[in-house]
Amino acid sequence: MNADSKRNQRILDRMLDSENSLNRCTDQMGREVVIPARPQRIISLVPSQTELLHHLGLGERVVGITRFCVHPASWFRSKPRVGGTKKVDLDKVRALRPDLIIGNKEENERTDIEALEKEFPVWMSDARSLDQALQMCLLIGGITGTQARAEELARAISDAFSALKPIAPARTAAYFIWRGPLMVAGGDTFISDLMRRCGLVNVFAHAEARYAEIAPGQLAAADPDVILLSSEPFPFAEKHVAEFNMICPGTPVRLVDGEMFSWYGSRMLSAPVYLTEVIHSIQRTA
C-alpha cells in the first residue's frame, strides 16, 4: 500500500461513523482525495476560495478561514482563523474537526499541506489560467454539493470575459507583485493570462520562475509600454511610482487592484468591468 493509499485509509477509518456517504475525487493537482459526499465542516486556506465558498451559499458549513480571508467582511469578523496561508496552525485546525480542507498549490506551503493531509481530507486547487479557474469553481461546487450555483457562476464569468475588449494593438507590460526585492509575475500565472486577455504582452513571460526576482536594469532593458503595480501581496502605493519613473522615464505606471488580477474565485465575476477601466486608462495615455 503506497503513501496515498495509507493516507486515504486513515481518513476512511475516521469517517466510518459519519452520516455522510464517502466520495473519492481528484483535485487539480491530480491527487485522489476521499471526502464526505456533503462535507459539513469546511476550512478554507485560500482567500479567493473563501469568497467563492460564500458565493456558493455554504454559510455555517465553513468553520475556519485564514487571517488573510478578508472577504466577505462578515466572515472575517466572525469565522475562526487557523493562521495564515503560509503558516497554518495545526492545533487550531484540529480543534475545528474539519471534514474537508480546501487549499491551493501556489498559496499554501507544501509542508503544511503534507501535515494536514495525514489527518484530514485536503482538496487542492491549481489555477494558472481563467479556464483552470473556472474548472476550479465547478469542481468545488461538485465536492460541496453546490453544483447548480457553481455552474451558474462559471457561465456568468465566462460571458463577462467574452465581452472584454482587449487593447489593440497589444501593448507590452510588466506586472509587479513585490518590492525589496522587485518581483514580477511570470508567464505561467493566472495574472499573466488575464494580462493577455487585456491585450497586454507580459515582458517577463519567459522568466524561469513563475514569480521572478528582477533587477532595475532588467526592467529598463525590457522597456515595457506600461508598468502595473499591484495592491497585493505588496501594497504598492502612489509614493512608489516615482521609483519606477526613474528606471523607465516616460513609461506610464499604473496602480492596479491585485484582487481583480489574481483572485480566481467569484471575484472573477466583477473583474472584467475593472479590467475594462484599466484598458481605457492605458489607451488614454498612449
Distance linking N and C termini: 61 Å
The total domain count is: 2
Q: Give me the CATH architecture of the largest domain, please.
A: 3-Layer(aba) Sandwich
Q: What is the H level of CATH, i.e. the homologous superfamily of the largest domain?
A: Nitrogenase molybdenum iron protein domain
CATH topology of the largest domain: Rossmann fold
Protein model, in words:
By secondary structure, this protein is α/β, with parallel strands linked by helices. The chain folds into 2 domains: 3-160, Rossmann fold (3-Layer(aba) Sandwich); 171-284, 3-Layer(aba) Sandwich (Rossmann fold). The protein contains 12 helices and 12 strands. Strands 7, 8, 9, 10, 11 and 12 form a 6-stranded mixed beta sheet that branches. Strands 4-3-5-6 form a 4-stranded parallel beta sheet, covered by helices on one side. Strands 1-2 form a two-stranded antiparallel sheet.
Question: How would you summarize what this structure contains?
Answer:
Helix content is 40%, strand content 18%.
Q: What is the topology?
A:
Blueprint: H1 3-15, E1 22-26, E2 32-36, E3 42-44, H2 47-55, E4 62-64, H3 73-78, H4 90-96, E5 100-104, H5 110-116, E6 122-125, H6 130-144, H7 147-162, E7 171-178, E8 183-185, H8 190-197, E9 200-202, E10 211-213, H9 216-222, E11 226-230, H10 241-247, E12 253-256, H11 258-262, H12 271-284
Helix pairs in contact: 6-7
List the main descriptive attributes of the protein structure presented here.
286 residues; alpha/beta; Rossmann fold; four-stranded parallel β-sheet; 12 strands
